[in-house]
Amino acid sequence: MAAKRDDNGHEAPIPWLGVVGEVPAIDAPQKVDSPEKKVLHLRVVSNAAVTPPPVAAAAVTTPVEKPRESRLSALWKRVTKKRKRSGSGIEARTSIRTLVWVRRVAQFGFFFLFMYWLVNTAFRGSFSSAEQNIRIGQPVEGFLLADPFVALITFLSSHTLYRGLFWSLGLVGLTVIFGRVFCGWICPFGTLHHFTAWLFPSRVGKGGNRVEANKTHGWQSLKFYLLYAFLAAAAVGVVVGGMFDPICVMVRAVGLSVLPAMQWVSAHVLGAGSESNIRFVQLGADRTQDVLANNIFQTKQFYFHQAWFIGATFVAIVFMNRIIPRFWCRALCPLGALLGVMAKFSIVGMEKDHAKCTDCNLCLVHCQGADSPQGGIKHRQDECHMCLNCEAACPEDVIKFRFFPNRKSEQTDLVPERRTALAAVGAGAAFYVLHRQSDASAAEVNYHPRAIRPPGSVPEHAFLEKCIRCAECMKVCPNNALHPAFMEAGIEGMWTPIFIMRIGYCEPSCVLCGDVCPTGAIQKINETQKMGKWKPGMDGKEWEVRPISVGTAFYDKGRCLPWSMATPCIVCEEFCPTSPKAIYTLDDVVINRKGEQVKVQKPVVDPNLCVGCGACEKVCPVVDAPAVYVTSVGETRSKTNVILLENTGYNSKGS
Amino acid sequence: MPPKKSPPPPETPRELPSRREVLTRAGLATGLIAGTAALAKWRWDKGGFGLHEAKGARQVRDFRPKGDLPLDMAIVRGAREGQPNATPAELVMAAIAAMGGMQRFVSRGDIVAVKPNIGWDRTPLHAANTNPAVVAAVVKAAYEAGAKKVVVTDASCNDPSRCFQRSGIWKAAYDMGAEVVLPVEHRFRGMRLRGDVLDEWPVYTPLVNADKVINVPIAKHHNLSKYTAAMKNWYGVLGGRRNRLHQNIDTSIADLATFMRPTLTIVDAVRVLMRNGPQGGNMDDAKEQHIVIASIDQVAADAWGCQLIGQKRENLGYLQMAQDRGIGTMFYEKLRVRELAV
């Protein structure tokens, strides 16, 4: 039998018999398995064929009695033991070890800040006076404003940089100096991946598999192709790329799916406590729910259209970390790709001393970006998250991050694969052309009646050039009225905001959706612009400022109680917020089945006054398909989606 | 060729389980069968399409004061000619003083729930919600009478945070030291009111779990029930889909007024919504009247108040129902009523 040989042709050493890494001293007493002590509860029926078990065979040497160590002291020893570092045993520079800890603190801090702002993307009331205008008052959309991908796609589509998006230049500067520090130090989604990949690797994602997974793979250039496709789509007119922006994904999934789900679970768990008969349990459960409702969640459970889909996508992406660490960041993130392109020019970078490398792969064990930190191979600055784990881990001082590094061991090609990149650009542009050829509402041919946009939205064409589907507006809406569209606004409008007034109506004096919109798809309007203002002394006759209408209400007379069932109702009229009310009533006396006379008030909509807020639809007691409902026609922002001649506004003076 | 017959396998001794194991296993099996049967019996759904029907007496939450009072209803007018009108706080103070002082209603250590109308996202000028100054004055009076805690709350129609802030009541009540409670979903509990049309509804617990309840509605026009104040204000006790109530609004109001018997009713008629009720929206719809009504009879308070917007008590169906049920009287002439000016 030939001896086993390893890769280099050397004879393989004798396989370990004991515990790996533990070399027993020759003179120490050998550990011997104690003889079988288990007693079987078996009754032997026939004694004939049974031989007694070999009990004494193993007990050749008796183990030497050692004074037993208590478990606690053993644990203490293990914790306080100084670990020997592998290889040379030299630690990384103090500055690097410090910076790694600074990075961890920064990641935690930014993640907390993101969650704090997300949770506070809601109006919770304040002690300010009644006349104070209601605004959020914090830059809760701050992460999106600092996002260069959002800035670039909206700039390409609308040729303008909206207000706070100017902040994204700061991140551009940071990236050009330090590389993708955003990914490794700031991005809350990146931090989530970092954390889950570290804490929950699967069995196939550990050890050698992890090292293998953390090597650079070809599929990592997918994100660059996605980026080019999104940029092309934006350049021709739709910012569909927002669906993949990490901050948008995070706001959308956590805001619309995770937080409501947490509220639902806590309401059921604590609700059980509230039902209890034990006084302090009940009190505690109630108080906890008060605190949660007033600080984290809302005063009522929120529901979002197809939130399950958004949530499931999110969970799937996070789950991928068990197999491939930071799969999202490496393969899909277009913001990461954009920052990667910038990082090609970064001033800080890596230098490697290949000769010193012993192929221990410790750098790869902790690598976040899969950017080839190991020796003997060129580094990928565009994939590197600047987490500094590799330098901190390297025992041989091979890796060094520094200002103006030499680029000998740096991969410097700009585009991963030119032809594929061009194909991606073509695909992005073709996507736009194809869906515009379909019955999309932006083509202004076939309006979807339920694609009702938030108040202050720009015309549909411009809206799709601006809306990045970040879901800030849906999160902030106090009445749970705004929802991510599925196909209502065409495939190009997936996850853009639309009203579902059966769930919530547009609060008349509320302008918060525009307040938090980072791109200006919903403009920052004020209360007067939204509700309108009559000319002094001309109430109900002439507007000084025309109100913003998002649609018009219609009656389904066959389902309306006063119209067809001889039953008084008019809750819709009671809730109609305009002054004078857009819903007026016609008094009538109708005969019911018994032949009795019933006085009813039959509600009618005045399309001139209706702002489409949907309060009527929300409160209509015909629960399933309401007898009054809003459709998008008559929305102020459109010059074509109108009913009435005089509402076109071409000739009106003033407004 | 037939297969060769193999010799029979050697007889191996059969290993029998021990007695202990037999008993354990038999016990486990019995327990499992018995447990399953018991669970099935306990949770056995025998089928049937049972409708829950109101049975038994109507539920009543009675907070009415015990002991003699000097008056049943006090009406305070504060409109003065040639000089500034009385402030809402003065009106409330005068009305409570005329009723014998807050000590007759609130005892030391009581938890008092004050229930203004905070239904709509309107500012005080629109007169759709109770005047914040009136609410603040009531809170102050309750604390001065020795209340341990005063809770101010309502189940709003519009977004509650917005209603509470824009009505000005949040700030006014908080400044007086009251605990302002937002209507959070879990504070509603299903309860059987056993009324004519209101059987089982979610009820807002902070309002019914207090020691004393003071109703502080605003007098206003209502398109369906013509005039509303004290009795209709109990809509704010209910959660759920209140929009169904409008199909039989008079009976709903009467049911609610049967359920809730407040310690004291203080109607704010400082600014009265004359038309476009219940939420108004135009400052011209409201008219300054500078009146506050304090009453222990909510029916009488509404019967008297409806004339403020030019209505007659005979036209209000819910008053007649309340009268018939004996909740109060719409003929306030029979009560000890005092009108005074400050």
Brief descriptors of the model:
heterodimer; A: mainly alpha; two-stranded antiparallel sheet; about 5% strand; B: about 350 residues; alpha/beta; 10-stranded mixed β-sheet; 9 helices; elongated
The rounded distance between the terminal residues' Cα atoms of chain A is 97 Å
Structural Rg of chain A: 33 Å
SSE-based structural type of chain A: mainly alpha
- Strand portion of chain A, in percent? 5-15%
Multimeric status of the protein: heterodimer
Poorly predicted ranges of chain B: none
- Which structural class matches the secondary elements of chain B? alpha/beta
Describe the fold and architecture.
The complex is a heterodimer of chains A (655) and B (342). Chain A has helices at 71-80, 94-119, 142-145, 148-158, 168-178, 181-186, 188-199, 207-213, 222-236, 246-275, 279-295, 307-319, 327-332, 334-343, 362-366, 389-393, 418-437, 460-466, 472-476, 512-516, 527-531, 561-564, 571-575, 615-619; strands at residues 42-43, 348-352, 399-403, 482-484, 497-499, 533-534, 543-545, 552-555, 583-591, 597-605, 628-631. In chain A, helix 5 packs across helix 14 (334-343) and helix 9 packs across helix 14. A two-stranded antiparallel sheet of chain A has the order 2-3. In chain A, a hairpin with an 8-residue loop joins strand 6 and strand 7. Helices cover 37% and strands 7% of the residues of chain A. Chain A is mostly helical and 655 residues long. Chain A has 24 helices and eleven strands. Chain A is elongated. Chain B has 342 residues and is an alpha/beta fold. Chain B contains nine helices and 15 strands. In chain B, strands 3, 4, 5, 6, 9, 10, 11, 13, 14 and 15 form a ten-stranded mixed sheet that branches. In chain B, strand 10 and strand 11 form a beta hairpin. In chain B, helix 2 (88-98) packs across helix 3 (132-144) and helix 7 packs parallel to helix 9 (317-325). Chain B is elongated and about 130 Å long. Strand 1 of chain A pairs antiparallel with strand 1 of chain B.
